[in-house]
Amino acid sequence: MQRKTFHRILLAGATALALGAGGAQAQAPTEISFFYPVAVGGPITKYIDGLAADFMKANPGIKVNPIYAGTYQETIVKALTAHKSGTPPVTSVLLSTDMFTLIDEDAIVPIDNFVKTADDKAWLGSFYKAFMMNSQTGGKTWGVPFQRSTVVMYWNKEAFKEAGLDPNRPPQTWAELKDYATKLTKKDASGKVTQWGVQIPSSGFPYWLFQILTTTNDAILANDAGNAVKFDDPKVVEALQYWVDLGKAGIHPPGVVEWGTTPKDFFEKKSAIIFTTTGNLTNVKNNAKFDFGVAMIPGNKRKGSPTGGGNFYVFKKATPAQQEAAFRFIKWITHPERAALWSMETGYVAVSEAAYGTDALRKYGRDFPQALVARDQLPFSVAEFSTHDNQRVTKALNDGLQAALTGTKSPAQAMKDAQAEADRLLRSYK
User: Ranges of Basic and acidic residues compositional bias (predicted)?
Assistant: First the structure.
């Protein structure tokens, strides 16, 4: 979509939300610093800058200052460091799974504090339920869904044809996935693999990709309170064994598979089926030089995927005026028209049903049905893995997964050790 069109449609519908800004206009503008998780440069920063400019035109009493803070990991470190030094951002997009960490650090305020009118309540109730699982706890809403995702399966239709498979019928079950991947794996004369049948990345977010297997095997890794995990559940061990066995069968790359290079391996036909975020959809659409499909995760005992991605949070040490201004900005940027355009530009899932009801996204879905798969998977989706002391508990799980995938531990032993470490870390939160 052309930048001008994006800019023009973003402004449409802004006026109604701007009407409440009158009171602030007589005073000096309220400044809000806004940490956004992306490295500097690239198209995303242009969109965010454009959104901030459009919002300020509609709300002259508020000045939004986007700060590009690096990866999600770098952004939360910067936000919490700034919080401890007394100068946190007013708002930030951080992982939905950072919710417990931010609450434990007393860094954020509940969004409910700002929800006063019937319109506010309707807006807060409009987000997909699957996205609210990682946004609410203890009867309060702490995060607002913004750039959210699920994991989906991408497949190369040309590779399917070459292997004698129906290019329009992706694998539906674990057994079919293994069978298809076997047929899709290609080797050269020396026996070296030139095209893997399937590739599931295990660096960056191993726990998240692992959840496509635990979820479809009907296992949930953590409780809603974020203070207990079930890594040693037999269904979890069985899911990890399946992943390890794909590698042992020679149809999935051995060892740890890089998150960042997985889409590139797909473009370069080094892998016929990949699993990655729907947030990579625009990237795949722009770079795959072959016909490709997008589908839900193949099921075993059930369908499903974890949700993922980032939420808006409002920081506690900001002034009440800044917090109110941040709330207005968050409500504006998640408006259905803007959520629809953000989804089209990035590949993230639009966060509300109303966004999918807009003319723009309806047309886009008709022309490019792959964009609707992640939305259609939401009724089967579960919360992304998240606990108190989230980074260390997640590291225990990730270390266990990588130990099993590299063959240094059996899946059962790896999950038993990860469970013991998680129990130790979570003891004080019981």
Answer: 418-430
